[in-house]
Amino acid sequence: KYVYDPEIIEITKRYAKGKSVIVLHGGSGYRARLAKKAGALRVTCIDISYKQTQIGRLEEEKEPLDIDFLVLDPYSKDFLHYLPKDLLENVDVVLGAFLLDHARCVEVLRIVSKNIKKLLSKNGLFFGLSDHPEVHTPTNPKYGVVISFENKTDKKLDGAPRRISIYQNINDKHMEVLHFHNFRWKQKTIYESLLQAGFSSIKFDVAKVSKDGIKKLGRDFWSSYEKDPSVLTILAKN
User: Which terminus, N or C, of the chain has the lesser number of Cβ atoms within 10 Å?
Assistant: First the structure.
């Protein structure tokens, strides 16, 4: 709420106000709704899960924002073939929160990078969030996410699988409510994949805690995150 969301909102306001946005790996459309409320004109949410997109459509019925939902696999070579033709090379901003982290091998990382590039208009850009590959200190349950490796040596390997545990505060205790796996890709590997896809400008930064987050929870709460920010931002332009 205080790290991921403000980054998505800021990028949308800066580059996509009154323009078109595609959210890849969009789940039930939470970040698609953020983009729409931040001023994007046309928003399409794409996810491989039919169930997630159905949840998104139910949310649309409760609060209509005119968001389109598509069930497609952005990691597939066939992705572009099944995409509506009016979206090809016609999108201003592609948002991919933790999209690249789910590429299971270098080949798939390159495929999804090329798919992103093919969506964008001449002056379009890709904005991604990624679990920072170079931060090796343990993440903290109080922030809601803990990243771990089965073997200590894995944390240095490119493409190593990571366990992502999601925590909630239940009865004043941090409890794991679900987990899934993604993959650790070196910043250099991500850069080379996007460069090979045809992006001319690729910049990395760390996702910062918003002013609202500092005001709400205090500087001390965020001290360990600010010391070792665990979320990487990726901005790639045509």
Answer: N
| Helix (H/G/I), strand (E/B), else coil: 76 | coil
- Strand 67-71 to strand 91-97: parallel, antiparallel, or no bridges (unpaired)? unpaired
End-to-end CA distance of the chain, in Å?
Answer: 29
Say how many CA atoms lie within 13 Å of 87 toward its Cβ: 24
Cα 118 from chain centroid?
A: 18
User: 198-214: buried (b, 16+ CB within 10 Å) or exposed (e) per residue?
Assistant: ebeebebebbbbbeebe
Question: Do residues 112 and 75 lie in contact, with contact meaning Cβ atoms separated by under 8 Å?
Answer: yes
The one-letter amino acid at 205: D
pTM (2 d.p.): 0.94
More confident residue, 149 or 60: 60
Q: Is 188 exposed, middle or buried (0-12, 13-18, 19+ CB in 10 A)?
A: exposed
Helix axes 187-197, 106-119, angle to 10 degrees: 50
Asked if 27 contacts 52 with a C-beta cutoff of 8 angstroms, the reply is yes
3-state secondary structure of 176: strand
Structure tokens at 21: 């946005």
Q: Binning pLDDT at 50, 70 and 90, where does residue 95 land?
A: very high
Q: Which stretches of the chain are assigned E, i.e. beta strand?
A: 20-24, 42-47, 67-71, 91-97, 120-131, 145-148, 160-170, 173-184, 201-206, 231-237
72, 82 contact by CB (below 8 A):
yes
Torsion angles phi and psi, residue 171, rounded to 5: 55, 45
Q: CA angle, corner 13, sides to 38 and 91, nearest 5?
A: 90
The alpha-helical segments, DSSP class H, found in 45-132 are: 50-62, 79-82, 106-119
